């Protein structure tokens, strides 16, 4: 029996992808033995760089919200790229584009941040329809970038459910050269497909809302454990923010210890998944 994609190793799945950013991410995961992404939501450049340098050895991907940096200067991007080379991780600007094709192409290529010039992966809400993918791919595809669609969200009461999620997956299936996967809470295998049709699309599932010590925050965030995400829901990458850098970005030893803890939990869950007997 053919192994489903979630039973294949990250290394084996490289060949299922043609997009260079997807290949890069899977290669790093296999090489470094980590499926941990850290979300660095801090507002000062100094903290941003210090956290990334600390967690760098433990992550496959660093997720940024570059627009929250208060003292942003483009030299910060060079520092981020140097850390990506030093520690071997990919960069994911969590921009959540949501406008018409022409506008998102400009937001992606231009402005203060010039996201397409440095972010290997970015993401978009499917709400405008397929034109958002065409707009972003006109900029990103020639640069070898990849896109994730937001198929689901981790927050309480999220509207990205049911037919919305199914339509997001259908949009992605029609643009496999640029759409490499989803931000979602579970595997999208078979979602939006007719019965009895084999699903040959190996999408990467990156999942935020991961925490080992708390169930949520005061603003609607909901956390699940790495095992729930990787084993039960068959997602591929755990995205952890405050669980690692907490409230005080200056506690370097604590941040390192937490990054190692989440990396180990994520990898252990992945080992369990790929070695489980096929039933
Ligand atoms: N994020 C979510 N949930 C989602 C999506 C994005 O938490 O459904 I889409 C982002 C928001 C934040 C990070 O940048 O992931 C999670 O951070 P914490 O681990 O600190 O909650």
TrEMBL record:
Enzyme Commission no: 4.1.1.23
Source species, domain of life: Eukaryota
One GO BP: 'de novo' UMP biosynthetic process
Positions bound to substrate: 41, 63, 154, 221, 241-242
Keywords assigned by UniProt, alphabetized: Decarboxylase, Lyase, Pyrimidine biosynthesis
Catalytic residues as annotated in Swiss-Prot or TrEMBL: 94, 96, 99
GO molecular function, one term: orotate phosphoribosyltransferase activity
Pfam family, one: OMPdecase
Residue span(s) of domain Orotidine 5'-phosphate decarboxylase: 35-257
Pathway where this protein functions: Pyrimidine metabolism; UMP biosynthesis via de novo pathway; UMP from orotate: step 2/2
Keyword Lyase recorded: yes
InterPro entries, per database record: Aldolase_TIM, OMPdecase, OMPdecase_AS, OMPdeCOase_dom, RibuloseP-bd_barrel
Catalytic activity: orotidine 5'-phosphate + H(+) = UMP + CO2
Annotated family: Belongs to the OMP decarboxylase family.
Descriptive protein name: Orotidine 5'-phosphate decarboxylase
Originating species: Rhodocollybia butyracea
